[in-house]
Specification:
This protein has two domains: 1-26 and 235-259; 29-231, Jelly Rolls (Sandwich), CATH 2.60.120. Helix content is 19%, strand content 35%. The protein contains two helices and 14 strands; from the N terminus they run H-E-E-E-E-E-E-E-E-E-E-E-E-E-E-H.
Length: 259
């Protein structure tokens, strides 16, 4: 009888642990943006049909965290017709998925910023309202930022310069990276641990996300992105699965020994 009661207690504890582990796993990676709308995608040329260094606010977006995507293209000099061409959204004639595409040519160079800070009004300058309330970890499982690049072209440079800045009520976290050139789609992954973070910063309460592409101003840089998301590191997911398998295996052995 005592053995049966002990087995029942062990089984109950095992179920509790499994429940807690399951509850910690998000249903899916947290998509920051997949650029699926507007449809058709707007196309603007800095200095031609859009003023230089004037923010573009795309609001009411279900696919972007906070419901709004802010874009800032800055030509580092006097714009010409090919300084900066920006396409964002879904354009079936060009891409089979949503896309954020930037094409630059010649001198001067162009820097481009993507900002997610909630729904606000920027006006003539890009303002960080810090209105998000986002747990990038997804309850503790996500520990990487993944950017799905469709292509990167940065002739004469090691790659595309990328600065990622995150903020939370307790501070900020930043990371500077170089994205390699590629004519084929690939995913560029950055670990949360690689960020330089203030002591009070938390990935569990992020209130703004900002990505600056080509900040140093390399000429003739072109790139296209299909998705930005927070995901679990493969080893983290594997550890969770292994732990769950071990618990179930232990339960099965105890059941068999009791027969």
């Amino acid at each position: 009888m005592k053995r049966t009661c002990m087995q029942t207690s062990i089984f109950a504890a095992t179920l509790a642990i499994v429940f807690c582990l399951t509850a910690a796993v998000p249903a899916a990676p947290i998509v920051i943006d997949d650029f699926s709308t507007p449809n058709p995608a707007p196309f603007f040329l800095v200095g031609i049909n859009h003023d230089n260094a004037l923010p573009v606010e795309q609001a009411g977006l279900a696919e972007a965290v906070g419901g709004e995507r802010d874009i800032l293209a800055v030509v580092l000099g006097t714009p010409n017709p090919q300084s900066a061409q920006v396409l964002t959204g879904f354009e079936a004639s060009l891409f089979v998925e949503g896309v954020f595409q930037v094409a630059t040519a010649g001198n001067p160079a162009t820097s481009v910023t993507l900002q997610y800070d909630g729904t606000d009004t920027d006006g003539a300058t890009l303002v960080n309202a810090r209105l998000l309330n986002l747990d990038l970890t997804g309850g503790g499982m996500n520990d990487e930022l993944a950017i799905d690049f469709i292509s990167v072209d940065a002739p004469g440079a090691p790659g595309l310069d990328l600065l990622i800045s995150l903020s939370s009520p307790g501070g900020t976290a930043t990371l500077t990276d170089i994205v390699p050139e590629s004519g084929s789609p690939f995913t560029h992954v950055t670990s949360f641990a690689a960020f330089a973070a203030d002591p009070g910063f938390s990935f569990k309460n992020v209130d703004s996300i900002e990505l600056v592409f080509n900040g140093p101003g390399v000429m003739d840089v072109d790139f296209a992105i299909g998705r930005i998301q927070a995901v679990p590191e493969p080893s983290t997911a594997a550890l969770w699965v292994a732990g769950l398998a071990a618990l179930l295996s232990a339960r099965r052995r105890r059941t068999e020994s009791a027969v």
